[in-house]
Amino acid sequence: MIGSPLRSTFISVAVAAVAGSFAEVGEAFGQGAVTPARIVDRFEQVDGVHPGFRRNHAKGLGVSGVFESNGTGGRLCRAAVFEPGRVPVIGRFSLDGGQPYQPDRSTTRRGLGLQFSAPDGEVWRTALINFPLFPVRTPEIFFERLLAFKQDPATGKPDPERVKAFEERHPESVEVLRKIAAEPRSSGFGDTTFHGLNTFLFTNKAGETTPVRWILRPTQPFEAAGDPPPTGITCSTSSSSRSIGDRFDGV
Ligand code: HEM
To answer: What is the pLDDT of residues 153-184, one digit of tens each?
Structure first.
C-alpha cells in the first residue's frame, strides 16, 4: 500500500504530468474549436502571409484539357460526365504548403485540383494528391501537426521536441508517413499518380450504389526523381504545355 506522504507526492506528480500534457495539447490547439478560419490563420502563422496566394498549395500552375469518357463509367454512375464523349476540364498542379516560392523538391506533397464542366451545366470539382494515404485523421490533428512541424528559422528544421510530442500523441500518423516515405518519387507533375483519397458513392441508372475512390495515372512512363534543387524557384512545367487528357488515364 502507498503511504500517505508518498501517495500525495505520487498524485501531485501524476497531476503535474497530466497538466503538462494538457498544456502541450493546449499550445497545439490554442483556444476553442478548430474552425476553417483558424486553420487558415495557422497556415499564415507557420508559412507567413503571402497576399494573393492560397494558404495551402500556394505554389502551382494552371492547366486545361479534356476528360474523354469511353462510357464504361456509366455502369457505376449515371452522372453526365460518364456518358461517352468529351468534357472540358481546367486544373491546377500544386505543391503542398503555404510558401509560394518554395523549390520543387520531389519529397514535397504534390496536388492536383480539377474542375469538370458537364454538358448539363453541372460543375464537378475534386482534389487529388500524390500519396495513397493522408497523414492525419481529422482537421484537428491537421491543425496540430502544422504547428508541430513549423520550421525554426535558425535551423531550417522543425523543433525535434515538438515533433516528438506530436508523434507520441499520433502514432498512426507516423505509420502513414513511413509508408509514404517508402513510395518511389517521380520526376515531376507529368509522371505522378494522383489519388482522390476520399470515397464517393456512385449511383447508376438502375439505382445501384457503389463506393468508389479514383486515381489518375499518367500515360507517360515513370521517371525517378533526381537530386532536389538546392534553393531558388524552379517549376516542373513539363505537363503544362499538353492537355490533361493527353497525359492521364482515370481509374
Ligand atoms: C484536414 C484536411 C485538409 C485541410 C485542413 C486542407 C486545407 C487546405 C487549404 C486551406 C487549401 C487552400 C485552399 C485555397 O486557398 O483555395 C487546400 C488546398 C488543396 N488541398 Fe487540402 N486540405 C485538407 C485535405 C486535403 C485532401 C484529403 C486532399 C486530396 C485528396 C487535398 C488536396 C488539396 C489540393 C489539391 C489543394 C489545391 C487546390 C487548388 O490548386 O486550387 N487536401 N487545402
So the answer is: 899 899 999 999 999 999 999 999 999 999 99
- Ligand 1 neighbour 56 (Cβ under 6 A): yes
Whether pTM exceeds 0.85 = no
Domains in the chain, CATH or no CATH each: 52-132+183-251 (2.40.470.10)
**Substitution site in 54, 195, 240 for ligand 1 pocket (most atoms within 8 Å of beta carbon):** 54
Q: How far apart are CA 238 and CA 218, in angstroms?
A: 12
